[in-house]
Amino acid sequence: MAMDGGAAELREAHRLTGHTDRVWSLAWNPSPGAGAGPVLASCGGDKAVRIWKRAADGAWRCSDVLEDTHNRTVRSCAWSPDGKLLATASFDSTTAIWEYSGGDFECVATLEGHENEVKSVSWSASGSLLATCSRDKAVWIWEMQPGNEYECVAVLQGHTQDVKMVQWHPNLDVLVSVSYDNSIRVWADDGDDEWHCVQTLTEADNCGHSSTVWALSFNQKGDRMVTCSDDRTLKIWDTSADLSQPKTGDNHESWRHLSTLTGYHGRTVFSAHWSSEDIIASGAGDDVICLFTEDKSSMTEEPSYRLILKKEKAHDMDINCVRWCPQDPNMLASASDDGTVKLWELRGNALD
Amino acid sequence: MVVGLINANPVIYEKKERRIRQAPETTDENAAEPIDQLEIFDHIRDIKDPEHPYSLEELNVVTEDSIEISDEHSHVRVTFTPTVEHCSMATVIGLCLRVKLMRSLPPRYKVDIRVAPGSHATETAVNKQLNDKERVAAALENPNLLDIVEECLSPTFA
């Protein structure tokens, strides 16, 4: 790793241009294939998805443009764990599944059912389940069947407003959703393929958020989670309790609030992402990227988190998404209303 | 179909006299001229009410004093006052204000739109919706809603 002992620095390494409207979301391919370099997908208000690859000369180029399938904004995208499929969620109320075959991306399935805008899509760790969420307040779970068929196995009701993002736990079949209703909901199946809300994290009961929760991210182990909100804070949660096997009776294990990161962003925090090196990146409506890490020297019993870097004016406009590259933990991608995607290189001793 | 007006008899206010903006006292012709309250007001005063043939200025929905601006921080806040407390047009008016400023101001500007405190029955809900850029983006992809907004922004008034 390029940790040379200096103070942490975030250097703009590449600027990817091509989208003709705001860029909403980014996804690194977790498994681009043997010998292949990192592959990034971006999507946005121009109704298109762009696939970015590093060329032999080190420059980043757009290798594919996926268009003419969604007729409204593509709000988010997600790769399957094996890196072979890309799911795209659109304001046109559908989710499309793309397969890379014969040098081309082909739309192999369209998931319909939500009443209006689909906001987010996520694959489970095993790759057999897919979750989507919508402004219709519902979360849907789909099961992948042979022959590019997807069967809806659950429609989860509980949120009272627009659901902004869904994300599966990194190794358990536990799903988390965050919403315009300010709450965070945790969903698991009871062993009989019946899905239930097993915990709701709110401001009143759990030191939760006081406005729209926009995004969440787990650490690699899955025992911590970060959420970010329109209330301009990020919150860290202890998620070590295994909620995948819901228990009845007394002594419920549960997830709990650990820490609130406040005073770092001046506007809505739209995105947060936890790196494999345990650095949390956040991107917000104040055009700022912040990096945080756990303060191991802290004398308090509860873990505390400290700011290690604040990058002002990282973009010309709101930052909608930040994502660490799984193959290179010092590379961060960010997407903005300014229509660009930037690739940043983290240098210096960030973990001191 | 006959649809009742939300506010059948709104109070009409005089249009303010149009002031000429003072040229800044500088000898450098190329110096950036900061955007001020009056310039923002000029952008939004002639927006047409969604249900009356009057401008937002004539209905006292917006005034020059309802605009707060910090050019240095690239921030504008517009506080508008719906004509009645239960105005179901409040979100449409707010959307028109946002779209007009989005099209008129340099992209570096952050815009907040809100109803005047105490002026609307569902104030918090209206404000939250108007400042959720994802829902604003989705609303503007709705052709019917976009038509209404375009009509309100069309240059009917000289």
TrEMBL record, chain B:
GO biological processes: chromosome segregation; protein maturation
Residue ranges occupied by any MIP18 family-like domain in the UniProt entry: 39-111
Keyword Hydrolase part of the UniProt annotation: no
PANTHER family per record: CYTOSOLIC IRON-SULFUR ASSEMBLY COMPONENT 2B, CYTOSOLIC IRON-SULFUR ASSEMBLY COMPONENT 2B-RELATED
Gene3D superfamilies: 6.10.250.1280, Fe-S cluster assembly (FSCA)
A Pfam family that the UniProt record links to this protein: FeS_assembly_P
Alphabetically ordered keywords of this record: Chromosome partition
Protein name: MIP18 family-like domain-containing protein
Organism this protein belongs to: Oryza brachyantha (malo sina)
SUPFAM superfamilies: Fe-S cluster assembly (FSCA) domain-like
Keyword Phosphoprotein annotated: no
Family from the record: Belongs to the MIP18 family.
